[in-house]
Write a structure and sequence with these properties.
Distance between the termini: 80 Å
Helix content: 55-70%
Largest sheet: none
Order of helices and strands: HHHHHHHHHHHHHH
Oligomer: single chain
Low-confidence stretches: 23-27
CATH architecture: Orthogonal Bundle
CATH topology: Ammonium transporter fold
Number of helices: 14
Structural class: mainly alpha
Strand content: under 5%
CATH class: Mainly Alpha
Length: 352
């Protein structure tokens, strides 16, 4: 009798269970935006720490000022627009860190602060905030700064100065709207030396950062370590940096084979300037890059080819910023051009 009652109870429980059926995707666990952004900040830390080691207090002040400017600007703009503040998603922090890393280490702090405001207001907020921006905000800020302050943004400070942890450059502490006075000015960056003097820095110096340049662009190895970390966490589309760097290597390698006296070796093109930082942390921006696999390849090849063209034949020694911004503008059209047909649908016929 007890066994019969037990069986009846089990059957009753099975009948009461509901089978839930739904369409794909069947996501069991997602990764929040905050988690991704925090990991990006963590991945940038090797480059940040090396920039402080290379340029001392100057680099620390510039990165901190850029971050503070971006966070404050985003908070104020959200308040003015009667929106909930979005500074907790860490996207403004990333914009600030990237902006600080792509500026010269003797850049005036008031100009840095202005650049952070532009990066958030014009590069992000005007498009509707995170997830809606067309261009990489940090590059927008840098582009405006280059147009507004061309002398300051092309003046370089020597790396590994003996007094870098005891003194701050006078130019960094320039009062707002005053003309900066630069002290301890260094020679040209590797790309400038190639462009105007046809001198190449060694691969060792380029990889380990024993060169003048922007605050966080000098050491290729520390930037790559951060990028590899994000790829290993599946928080970056590896196809973008891989295809971009491969394109630069192959294109510049062909030129080098044609005339090794006129064109630089492909390793020089890979490790110099802002290519590594741009490939791993800017071109790979989830919002500004295509979403289709083929679109990603086209997008990355376009950036790589344009970088080499600007560096070799353009009037400026560096072309990463302009190449990425132009590719950001083309990204939606690239996706539209190569979009795949949904399975089971019929291709639309063009009306004559």
């Amino acid at each position: 009798m007890l066994e019969k009652e037990k069986l009846t109870s089990n059957q009753h429980n099975m009948l009461n269970k509901t089978l839930h059926i739904s369409t794909s995707p069947h996501l069991k666990k997602g990764v929040s935006t905050n988690t991704i952004m925090k990991n990006v900040v963590l991945a940038l830390m090797p480059a940040v720490l090396f920039s402080i080691y290379s340029f001392g207090i100057n680099a620390l002040l510039i990165v901190l000022t850029a971050v503070i400017s971006c966070v404050i600007s985003e908070h104020i703009l959200c308040y003015i627009s009667s929106k909930k503040s979005t500074i907790s998603d860490w996207s403004a922090v990333i914009t600030g860190v990237l902006l600080g890393l792509i500026l010269p280490p003797a850049f005036p702090l008031w100009m840095v602060f202005f650049g952070g405001m532009i990066a958030i207001a014009l590069g992000k907020f005007v498009f509707g905030g995170l997830g809606n921006n067309v261009f990489n905000p940090a590059l927008v800020g840098r582009a405006v700064l280059q147009a507004a302050f061309p002398v300051a943004i092309t003046t370089w400070f020597p790396s590994f100065s003996p007094t870098r942890f005891q003194e701050v450059s006078s130019s960094v502490l320039t009062l707002p709207f005053m003309e900066p006075v630069f002290d301890g000015i260094s020679g040209a960056t590797p790309l400038s030396a190639f462009k105007f003097d046809h001198v190449f820095a060694s691969n060792f110096d380029l990889i380990f950062g024993n060169i003048p340049g922007s605050t966080g662009e000098t050491s290729a190895i520390f930037i790559a370590l951060g990028g590899i970390y994000l790829i290993s966490r599946n928080m970056m589309n590896w196809r973008i940096p891989f295809t971009l760097l491969l394109t630069v290597f192959l294109f510049s390698g062909i030129l080098f084979l044609i005339n090794d006296q006129l064109y630089p070796p492909p390793t020089f093109m890979l490790f110099s300037g802002g290519l590594m930082l741009g490939a791993f942390f800017m071109a790979s921006d989830m919002v500004g890059s295509p979403i289709t696999s083929l679109g990603v390849i086209i997008y990355s090849v376009f950036i790589g080819v344009l970088v080499v063209i600007i560096r070799v034949w353009g009037g400026l020694p560096e072309g990463v910023m302009y190449a990425i911004l132009l590719a950001n503008a083309l990204s939606p059209q690239i996706d539209k051009l190569v979009k795949t047909r949904v399975y089971g649908t019929v291709k639309e016929k063009v009306k004559s």
